[in-house]
Amino acid sequence: MLGATWAVLMPLFTAAVYTFVFSKVFQARWPGMSDGPFDFAVICLTGMVVHTIFAEAVARAPALVLGNASYVTKVVFPLEILPVVTVLTALVNAGIGIAIVLIGNLLLNGKIYFTVLMLPLVIAPYLLFVIGLVFFFAAAGVYLRDLSQLVSLLITVTLFLTPIFFPIEAIPESFRRAILLNPLTFVVQQARDVTIFGRWPDFVGLTIYSVAALAALACGFWIFQRLRNGFADVL
User: What is the DSSP letter of 230?
Assistant: First the structure.
């Protein structure tokens, strides 16, 4: 019960803090939206929900195999399941955030857009990409015990280099291309389009992203399989 309550309150509290800092202190404004703090909060929370899937899953990845050593040394267990379960768990928690976004948008705009049905299509390739990362970091974490510190830094960097608290239009042209190369940027923007702005997703962009996500998944899985033969020796 306490865990479920915390899962609801945590994204709300975090979004409230960032909304105050960026909308009031830094005076951030979103094109096409009012200057009200609640509009900014919904936009901010949508981006944070997408990032949370990445953050929760990747943060757990370096200790994923280490924390389940008995599955490696004592029991014949399909270790490939662990990264998938980790990402799906993060997805369940993110689902609470999405529900809050939809309720907030309903209260602010008086409707829920039909395009929200496209959200699974937006999130699906993103999940494949994150699973690929978890495969990689889970395997590398067995051999590099301090990897979690680097991963924590990566999570923080991606939080502020993804247009979560600021619109992509606010970034100078000279830096905008680098932000667009961030794998989280496209998903955050598409998630906002289908949930908040009522726009259809970029199907061409989703196709390209899906191909890249499958490549990342294949690469991460290949590395995991190559390194798993030495797990028992290291553990």
Answer: G
Query: C-alpha dihedral over 192, 197, 200, 206, to 10 degrees?
Result: -20
Whether the CB-CB separation of 106 and 38 falls below 8 Å is answered with no
Q: Residue length, the chain?
A: 235
**Between the CA of residue 104 and those of 38, 40, 210, 225, what are the distances in Å?**
8, 11, 29, 43
CA angle, 90 as apex, 122 and 130 as ends, to 5°?
Answer: 55
Count of C-beta atoms within a 10 Å radius of residue 64: 21
Residues 59, 73: Cα–Cα separation, whole Å: 24
Q: What is the pTM of this model?
A: 0.86
**Mean pLDDT for the chain?**
84
Residue 220 burial (C-beta neighbours within 10 Å; 0-12, 13-18, 19+): buried
For position 172, what pLDDT does the model report? 84
What is the CA angle 218-221-226, rounded to 5?
A: 120
